[in-house]
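Appendix B, record 7
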Amino acid sequence: MEKNENNINSSFIRNKGDFVFMISHKNELITLNKVTIASDSRKIRIFLNGVIYNNNEDQLIEGFQSQGIDYIKQIEGSFVIFLMVGTQFYILTDRVNSKKAFYVFIENVWYVSNNIDALPKDKCHLSLDGIACYLANGAMFNDLTLFQEIRSANRASVTSFVNGQISVQSYWDFKFEYSAGSIFQQSQYQKELELLLIESVKRRYDPALKTAISLSSGYDSRAILGILRNKIIAPNISCISYALTDNPKQDTDADVAKELSAQCGYPHQVLVSYKGNLIDQLKNNAKEGKCLSNFCDELDAWHTLAASNQFSELFVGDEFFGWSNLAQESKENLLESVKIFGASGISRLEPYLSKKIYHQLRQCLNKLTDDIYEKTNAIPDDNDKEDFLYLDQRINHVLMPWREFFSSQVGFVHNPFMDGTILEFMQKLPPHLRQNKSFYLKTIKYMFPDLFSINKATSSGHEVNWQEELQNQKGSLILLIQDTDSRLDEVISKKEVMDLINGKGSILTKIKTFTLTKLQLLGRKNTFVDKLLRKLLTVPGLYQKGSSIPRDKLILRLFLIRIYLSPSSLDN
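Structure tokens (predicted):
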């Protein structure tokens, strides 16, 4: 069997790499990539980006040989696998899509890669759906990208290509299935969850590797810290946090994290989140996040840590233990509870964009939110709907790309609380135990009372005032627009972006937008007022329930799109 030279620990498989494949309509496959693992006969060839925790290389090959493609159901990890079985080619994604793959059909050839920049973007049309989604949400929901023809592979899916046709099948469905008697099983559930939490961290920890934990004052990274210290007795853990200065203020995230680290006897270091160069921050976010990930405020901190080459492993605390307690039954409230914004999200752009483009972007967002909301039609309970969308959209398309593009610069990112056993466990937990993460919080506080006796931070201490930064560096931003052309100019012109920065829009439209924004806020707080406003403001599109994205966020997102679609900006 052909071995993976990058695999250090025989207990799991790990590899990082960008892979590119071309598949003709006759099933002829071309790739120059180095195989990660292959069977002796080379009938099975595996190209892995990520980590597999519950197989060694021999087990993985044997699994696919004996069970075929169905073996993917038994694999635990954070990965995208490109699998060749004879002449058949597959894309295999993990349950939460922690590693992305993209594909496009151009001139009778399928192009497939885990790096969107390796695909023929110059031969693709811009996607208004993708542009609208990114402006309103800072991420790409469903399978959207900035290009009409390029799509991302679904989570928990097997994608195959045969005779120029694509086939996508899901191998794992997330469905809540809890019994009426579950209310009497809380003690049993708590013991079960404790064991699952501990095992999920154990599965990912290797004492031979240099390991850090991204530590805030929050509960999730604190729980991982407790497991590493109390349950595993891990000797070689370092804790990292970020702040606006290397001497964080009292009661901020980094300050509390320092106290938590000291209590566990682990070293702690603070990284400066933002060093003040806005143009570099925008260019790096565009180049590294590729308009697939949310804007990374603390990108300078990740660059500093990656350049130090101190660690090969990074533990992070993303989780799926429930969300809020959804109080109102409406499409807008449901979607916005998991940070999915529709047409109202871009309302502050109306004074600056052409009526045609603004209307088209709104239509795109209305369709997107309808499509996402439709996924919950078969789910009767509102809290179940909310938690499903948190997994299906927010974890999948917001949290995981952010980790992949930014945090993984440090090393292999380990997300223990995204373990498949924990996701399976959550399906049997009823809504009242998931609301506001109540059952999970009760469990971890019982496990580590000393760590949870320390109060959470009163402020993050690493958030930048981007409104102030944009104002202070407005001249540099205008020069950047004037000096570079972008494919975005076809949709939103240089003048329109500069007018937005300078606040030069139609006075009447700005007054209308301001008034309607205030009315929207009033309507969100009072159902009666909302119904009254809908009756009074009967012009289509004039009053729409939903939140507006702040102007500074819209400007940042516009710049990321402009820069990403302008190769000259990325090269400089």
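Remarks on this record: Residues 23 and 29 are 5 Å apart (CA to CA). Residues 465-571 form one domain.
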